[in-house]
Amino acid sequence: MKQNYFYKVTSKSLKSAWITSVKKLCIQYVIGKLIYPKLKGSKSMVFKSLKSAKKWKDALSHRIFNPVCYLKLFKCTVKNPKLKRKFANSSLFENNLMKKEIVDNIIDFWKARSSNNKFMGRQQPAPSGTYFCDAVKLIEEV
Fold first, then answer.
1. In sequence order, what are the residues at sequence separation of 6 or more whose Cβ sits closer than 8 angstroms to the Cβ of residue 26?
2. N or C: which end of the chain has fewer CB within 10 A?
3. 114 within some domain
4. Is residue 1 part of a domain?
5. CA distance 7 to 49
6. Is residue 133 within 8 Å of residue 6, measured between CB atoms?
């Protein structure tokens, strides 16, 4: 049976690339181990295509003002992937939101999703090709 692989962008230390500084949301990945998000009801974000993952990695490396070497890209397997088009607004660089408000918005997004309620907070388009999944197992660096 053919294995379906996905791709995950992490920090150099194998943490969630986008929210590394937020302890209650940041996920610490381990190569070869199935890892679930810390926050109940939340999901990990991955890409089905290598091209979409590379595009996100490049965009993210410029946005967080770190060279590409601070981010890693992995082939992975995932549990229960679902294509998603929107996500809680999580821009760390909006002048009209403080960091705590951004974190609260993300947490509210996951709480609403896990209880099947409509999310009334701020949303933004998810990066092209984003899948939400229950868990991620990093296989090898690409």
1. 15, 16, 19, 20, 38
2. N
3. yes
4. no
5. 7
6. yes
Strand partners, 140: 75
pTM exceeds 0.85, yes or no: no
Question: DSSP string covering the chain, please?
Answer: -PPPPEEEEEETTSBBSSSTT-TTT--B--BTSEE--SSTT--EEEESSHHHHHHHHHHHHHHTT--GGGEEEEEEEEES-EE-SEEE---TT-TTS-HHHHHHHHHHHHHHHHTTPPP-S-EEEPPTTEEEESEEEEEEE-
- As for how many domains the chain has, the answer is 1
Average pLDDT estimate for 86-98? 47
* Closest alpha carbon to 126 in 32, 25, 24, 45: 45
CA–CA separation, 103 and 99 (whole Å): 6
Cα 97 from chain centroid (whole Å): 20
Query: Mean per-residue pLDDT for 88-106?
Result: 53
Domain that holds residue 11: 6-141
